[in-house]
């Protein structure tokens, strides 16, 4: 049996969420349109089918299009990362088959560097503080506290960098 990777599990979850969103948005709309004839004028251009199709298509577009866009973006990002890692592995394999030493810059790309954690942590920390201040001034702390998520992620990345630095010493 083929092993399920994280990428496959994310794809399955994304399709399931999309299907759930479409169904949960369309089913109440179809139930609402069960009595559609009492709300319609006598003559509808396109006939009775248009009166039923228009609300269903509108609901699917309102709920389905944003979910589909998010799923497609995530899919492209994961495919790009997977392909980049595959190419890196192929390059390293070619060096090993030829009996040559693997260049250090290829190995550095394969493993995350502690400096990358520091950079990402500082960017997340700055973005989180900025977002928190902006949203708090514009809407109040209830909405502004969303930026604290980024602050927490930034602090976690900086902590990871600090712990890796200590472990290296």
Q: Give the overall form.
A: flat
Order of helical and strand elements: HHHHHH
**Helix tally?**
6
Oligomer: single chain
| Low-pLDDT regions | none
Percent strand equals under 5%
User: Tell me about the biggest sheet?
Assistant: none
Query: Structural class, please?
Result: mainly alpha
**Mean of residue pLDDT values:** 79
Supply Rg: 25 Å
User: How many domains is the backbone divided into?
Assistant: 2
Number of strands: 0
Q: Helix proportion of residues, in percent? A: over 70%
What is the straight-line distance between the termini?
43 Å
Transmembrane segments: 50-78, 117-135, 141-160
Keywords: Membrane, Signal, Transmembrane, Transmembrane helix
Pfam families: DUF6249
Domain DUF6249: 56-164
Characteristics:
mainly alpha; 2 domains; single chain; 0% strand
Structure notes:
The protein is mostly helical and about 170 residues long. It folds into two domains: about 1-110, no CATH class; about 110-169. It has helices spanning about 5-30, 45-95, 105-110, 115-140, 140-145, 145-169. α1 (about 5-30) packs antiparallel against α2, α2 runs antiparallel to α3 and α4 (about 115-140) runs antiparallel to α6 (about 145-169). It starts with 5 loop residues before the first helix and ends with a helix. Keywords: Membrane, Signal, Transmembrane, Transmembrane helix. Pfam families: DUF6249. InterPro entries: DUF6249.
